[in-house]
UniProtKB/TrEMBL annotation:
The keyword Acyltransferase does not apply. This is ABC transporter substrate-binding protein. Pfam families: SBP_bac_5. CDD domains: PBP2_TmCBP_oligosaccharides_like. Residues 1-20 form the signal peptide. Residues 89-444 form the Solute-binding protein family domain. InterPro entries: Peptide/Ni-bd, SBP_5, SBP_5_dom. Keywords: Signal. One of its GO terms (cellular component) is ATP-binding cassette (ABC) transporter complex. GO terms for molecular function: peptide transmembrane transporter activity. It comes from Leifsonia shinshuensis. One of its GO terms (biological process) is peptide transport.
Length: 559
């Protein structure tokens, strides 16, 4: 699978009230020692077209810089929020970040002695400029920050919001900061490619061509010596080509799904090759279009939910890249154990064909020659679709289609359009069902916001929605999501979340099917210090905001 949705939603519960966040490794030096040395090759499987045009604008999410991830090494955020491990917040360009009690105001202290790659000093003015750019340009507000005011206060910068940012701390803190002295002359920040990239990060662009991008380490980086002297970013046409490169050692660091990753990658060099799926709070869902038949009927949604074989999904579709999804709330475990309501602590998914048939029979469904028919006598038929080439997702919907045919007699078809068509279909509602991920954070709010918030329907533009693709409408759920996000204490958040879980379980707005870990592959032949299951200081995905943190944590192997 190739992720193209911009996922900068690693929100975290980093503190209570106005606690200052001063996470570990805040100086960025934890792995750096001595002089920069060696190189690493980073790759994606999105095709050569990504390298046809140099786009270093970090707000253009489909440009070369953000698609490949090299922008993460050039433009840095105020802080990095960890969606795994202890959900800690690590100050980065800010030396300190402080939220007020209701998370409507953020005070940040800019780090001193930081220089832009063109030699000019980084100051509080750059922070003010960047956030005002977002405030004044709605198309850049990718995280829905809803800023009302940004200003300097002595040595600090104070950001005010129209609503609580408790659930979106990552969206706020992980905005890439850009230099005012360069960007104030950018006429349209939504379109300018910014071919001359000026950042505070540890690298600058050495070369850009259709063959790849080469970054070179700065010698004046504020975080100290950059461990790796050179980064090479390459594009492959598909997962198969990138897998071969990983197997041969041509590529060192990537993010792809690998069928039977143990055999096809790890075992090729078991001493050095690592495949890690960081288990974040993001399940994969069968997103069903609740705005039309047949999934506008809760009885059918419930019945389908009752016959899905989630173990088969984890083993066959996902090759055990992540744990099986077991809890009926859809919350991945053990990461989300603390958030599961007491009523559902021990409620796990079980295949119950007889129970599913009773639900359907009670709702007026019948069978004719083994085929399920709805109360009007019409055969139940629908199509599951996911992009061709997304092997794990296509295998997933094929499994579901087979399960529904054999257990309930549903005429479930599978379609595999190209990715662009699929994304357009999902946004416009031109589908019956798709296998899709949800946003992630250090609490389950994004899971339910993505599947039950009808505000996205009200904000639809030309019939296209940006989330809640299943078009589920429930005023109570929408109100509870807002209540959770704006709550001032943990008890109020828990009460709202318990009610959201009940609605999700009872009304089945989407069908949770598996966990959606952040996948990554790397090797330890040249460098060590990578995040892992035993050391979850970040995910290992090279396209995420934490990629720069990972890079600065590395050190040469054998030293």
């Amino acid at each position: 699978m190739r992720l193209r949705k911009y996922l900068i939603t690693a929100s975290a519960i980093a503190a209570v009230g106005a606690l200052a966040l001063t996470g570990c490794s805040s100086d960025g030096k934890s792995g750096a020692s001595g002089a920069s040395t060696g190189s690493l090759t980073v790759a994606k499987p999105d095709g050569a077209a990504i390298l046809a045009t140099q786009i270093n604008n970090p707000f253009i999410t489909t440009g070369s810089g953000m698609s490949l991830g090299y922008d993460r090494m050039i433009y840095e955020p105020l802080a990095i929020v960890n969606p795994v491990g202890k959900n800690e917040t690590t100050p980065w360009l800010a030396s300190k970040v402080v939220w007020n009690a209701d998370y409507t105001q953020l005070t940040v202290t800019p780090r001193s002695n930081v220089k832009w790659s063109d030699g000019k000093a980084f100051t509080a003015d750059d922070i003010v400029f960047t956030y005002n750019l977002i405030k004044n340009t709605p198309a850049l507000d990718l995280g829905g920050l809803k800023l009302t005011d940004v200003k300097k206060d002595g040595n600090n910068v104070v950001l005010n919001f129209s609503e609580s940012k408790f659930v979106k701390q990552g969206d706020v803190l992980q905005v890439p900061i850009v230099p005012e002295h360069q960007w104030k002359s950018v006429a349209d920040a939504t379109k300018d490619p910014v071919t001359k990239a000026v950042g505070t990060g540890p690298y600058t662009i050495k070369t850009f061509s259709s063959q790849g991008v080469v970054l070179q380490a700065r010698t004046d980086y504020w975080g100290g010596t950059v461990p790796v002297a050179q980064l090479k970013y390459l594009e492959y046409n598909d997962n198969t080509g990138l897998l071969r490169a990983l197997q041969s050692g041509e590529t060192d660091w990537a993010q792809i799904f690998i069928t039977d990753y143990q055999k096809n990658y790890v075992d090729k060099d078991p001493k050095h090759n690592v495949f890690w799926g960081a288990n974040v709070l993001s399940p994969d869902m069968i997103v069903v279009n609740t705005a039309k038949a047949p999934f506008n009927d809760v009885a059918l949604r419930k019945a389908v939910n009752m016959v899905i074989d989630r173990k088969a999904h984890a083993v066959t579709a996902r090759s055990n890249a992540g744990p099986e999804l077991t809890n009926v709330t859809g919350i991945p475990q053990p990461t989300g154990d603390q958030y599961i309501a007491s009523d559902y602590k021990d409620q796990t998914f079980k295949i119950d064909v007889d129970g599913a048939k009773k639900v359907l029979t009670d709702a007026g469904y019948t069978w004719k020659s083994g085929a399920l028919t709805d109360p009007s006598g019409k055969p139940v038929s629908f199509t599951l679709q996911d992009p061709q080439g997304w092997n794990d997702y296509v295998t997933g919907i094929q499994l579901v289609a087979t399960q529904l045919k054999t257990t309930l007699g549903i005429d479930a078809k599978v379609a595999t359009p190209d990715a662009d068509t699929w994304f357009a279909n999902v946004a416009s509602g031109n589908f019956d069902a798709v296998l899709h991920w949800t946003g992630s954070g250090s609490n389950p709010w994004h899971i339910y916001d993505d599947t039950m918030n009808s505000s996205y329907l009200d904000q639809a533009a030309d019939g296209k929605v940006s989330d809640n693709f299943g078009r589920y409408s429930n005023p109570e759920a929408t109100a509870l999501l807002k209540e959770y996000a704006q709550a001032s204490d943990d008890s109020a958040r828990t009460a709202a979340l318990d009610k959201l879980e009940k609605i999700f379980v009872d009304d089945v707005p989407a069908i949770p099917i598996g966990t959606h870990p952040q996948l990554a592959q790397y090797n330890t032949r040249k460098f060590v210090g990578w995040p892992s299951e035993k050391d979850q200081y970040a995910t290992a995905d090279p396209t995420q905001p934490s990629a720069v943190q990972v890079l600065m944590n590395l050190k040469p192997a054998g030293k």
